[in-house]
Amino acid sequence: MTAQKTILMLGDSLVEWGDWDTLLPDYKVLNRGVAGEDVEGLSVRLADEVAVVEPVQHILIMAGTNNLLMGNLFFPAIFRTMLVRLQQLRPDPAITVNSILPMDIPGLPGETIDRVNLELRGTTEDSGSTFLDMDEAYAARCLPITHPCFMEDGVHLSTRGYQVWAEEISRHLQGLEREP
């Protein structure tokens, strides 16, 4: 039997509130989500987070939702610096940036999240990291009436939302592990 791989998950409440031991049973998950945190906050604590953890094979970042909620659309530029720092601090793990989920934020046009995700994808791929785009998975498996993936606030995830996300994370990481 192979040793269990370790994932360091960094981000906001979407990370913090996930029951990752149940959702990703094939991985040991180090949950470093902080509710209410924006990308700038994550950037500030980044060095401390990666300095104290055990060896990890994967780092997954889900951040930016709180920036959008505060009307800050310029955070993808901070990701560029953050990813460079992260690769300097931890050169070995595969780094994945998760797309902003297709949530319903009052007052924010739907295409805004698409535009931000496009910018995040470019920044992520330019850094040599991978981007996990959740749009298709949520469009296919999250139906508002029968299988809602978001809570009533339109931002936080339901049990179904976490299941879909975890399935995509697992599929993505397994694909990375198969690459030479």
Layout: helices, strands, pairs:
Layout: E1 5-11, H1 13-16, H2 20-23, E2 27-33, H3 39-52, E3 58-62, H4 65-69, H5 76-89, E4 94-98, H6 110-126, E5 130-132, H7 135-141, H8 159-178
Parallel strand pairs: 1-2, 1-3, 3-4, 4-5
Helix pairs in contact: 3-5, 5-6
* Percent of sequence in beta strands: 15-25%
Number of helices: 8
Name of the CATH homologous superfamily: SGNH hydrolase
Reading side by side through the largest sheet, how are the strands ordered?
2-1-3-4-5
Low-confidence stretches: none
CATH architecture: 3-Layer(aba) Sandwich
Overall, the morphology is globular
Mean pLDDT: 90
What is the C-alpha radius of gyration, as a whole number of Å? 15 Å
Number of strands: 5
CATH class descriptor: Alpha Beta
Largest sheet: 5 strands, parallel
Overview of the structural elements:
By secondary structure, this protein is α/β, with parallel strands linked by helices. 47% of the residues lie in helices and 15% in strands. It is built from eight helices and five strands, in the order βααβαβααβαβαα. The protein is globular.
In short:
By secondary structure, the chain is an alpha/beta fold.
What are the salient characteristics of this protein?
alpha/beta; 8 helices; Rossmann fold; 47% helix
